[in-house]
């Protein structure tokens, strides 16, 4: 009986590249702060994420990196502060898939973010969140469903990201993938709310979406220690998450060249012209006033 070649070996033989940012090429500070999802190298080598057949998305991502000399930049937000947070665990799993697809993935920790308007927007966590949003090409939002809707922890993060800061729109033209975590049976209420938010923030939300029912049954080590190391068990829901992350990368690659053009809108150009005209008039009035004062001396 002939030997069986593993899927990973087949991909190696086909020379499909491994795009994940290695420790050697990564920024150590960013890696420690924003990539808590990373596995030990010996674990990653045989992990289920490493065994996924993602050749088409990897090839698209590789071509994009070669063309732009930069990776897709993805901001990940999750919506719970519990020690064993299933939305955080799900965000970690999704991030591992995106990392393997060559993305520069950064997870924002919401634990130090104050309630909206309780502090000035110069607060360090607020500035950090807004800077990450501006930096990104796309977002991944993972929210639990509580009382049939988003959690306050998740919504608070969105509320701190303004729709407009002067002429800069922190989310406009970016892509968005959405995931919902359920304590009980499957629901789509939070996903529907996430889509509304995405549209309001002028983002392109991918068609696919993921809703995980009875999350407490879906991860290893039920009860857990809150370390984030518990993994998503094999199921159709896990495969759906892979589908979503693959689609997100493909769509972001296609959309990325046009991101800036979606910030160039008629109404905003008109508003900028009007502001510039008022500024010029104010400058002329100031100069005339200075001349009048000078002439009277």
UniProtKB/TrEMBL annotation:
<dbReference type="InterPro" id="IPR014063">
    <property type="entry name" value="Arsenate-R_ArsH"/>
</dbReference>
<protein>
    <submittedName>
        <fullName>Arsenate resistance ArsH</fullName>
    </submittedName>
</protein>
<feature type="domain" description="NADPH-dependent FMN reductase-like">
    <location>
        <begin position="73"/>
        <end position="215"/>
    </location>
</feature>
<dbReference type="Pfam" id="PF03358">
    <property type="entry name" value="FMN_red"/>
</dbReference>
<comment type="subunit">
    <text>Homotetramer.</text>
</comment>
<keyword id="KW-0547">Nucleotide-binding</keyword>
<dbReference type="InterPro" id="IPR005025">
    <property type="entry name" value="FMN_Rdtase-like_dom"/>
</dbReference>
<dbReference type="GO" id="GO:0000166">
    <property type="term" value="F:nucleotide binding"/>
</dbReference>
<keyword id="KW-0521">NADP</keyword>
<dbReference type="InterPro" id="IPR029039">
    <property type="entry name" value="Flavoprotein-like_sf"/>
</dbReference>
<keyword id="KW-0560">Oxidoreductase</keyword>
<keyword id="KW-0285">Flavoprotein</keyword>
<dbReference type="GO" id="GO:0016655">
    <property type="term" value="F:oxidoreductase activity, acting on NAD(P)H, quinone or similar compound as acceptor"/>
</dbReference>
<keyword id="KW-0288">FMN</keyword>
């Amino acid at each position: 009986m002939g030997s069986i070649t593993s899927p990973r070996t087949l991909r190696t033989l086909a020379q499909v590249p491994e795009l994940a940012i290695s420790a050697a090429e990564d920024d150590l500070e960013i890696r420690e702060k924003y990539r808590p999802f990373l596995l030990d190298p010996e674990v990653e080598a045989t992990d289920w994420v490493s065994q996924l057949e993602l050749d088409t998305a990897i090839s698209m991502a590789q071509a994009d990196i070669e063309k732009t000399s930069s990776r897709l930049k993805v901001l990940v937000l999750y919506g719970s502060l519990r020690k064993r947070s299933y939305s955080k665990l799900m965000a970690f799993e999704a991030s591992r898939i995106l990392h393997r697809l060559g993305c520069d993935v950064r997870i924002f920790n919401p634990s130090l973010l104050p309630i909206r308007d309780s502090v000035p927007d110069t607060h360090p966590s607020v500035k950090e969140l807004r800077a990450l949003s501006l930096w990104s090409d796309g977002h991944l939002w993972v929210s639990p469903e509580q009382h049939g809707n988003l959690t306050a922890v998740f919504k608070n993060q969105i509320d701190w990201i303004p729709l407009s800061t002067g002429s800069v729109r922190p989310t406009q033209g970016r892509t968005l993938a959405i995931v919902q975590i359920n304590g009980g049976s499957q629901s789509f209420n939070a996903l529907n709310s996430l889509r509304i938010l995405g549209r309001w923030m002028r983002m392109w939300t991918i068609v696919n979406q993921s809703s995980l029912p009875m999350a407490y049954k879906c991860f290893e080590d039920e009860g857990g220690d809150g370390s984030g190391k518990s993994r998503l068990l094999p199921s159709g829901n896990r495969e759906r998450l892979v589908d979503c992350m693959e689609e997100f990368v493909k769509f972001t690659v296609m959309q990325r060249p046009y991101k800036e053009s979606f910030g160039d809108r008629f109404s905003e150009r008109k508003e900028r012209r009007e502001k510039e005209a008022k500024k010029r008039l104010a400058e002329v009035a100031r100069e005339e006033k200075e001349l009048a004062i000078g002439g009277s001396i």
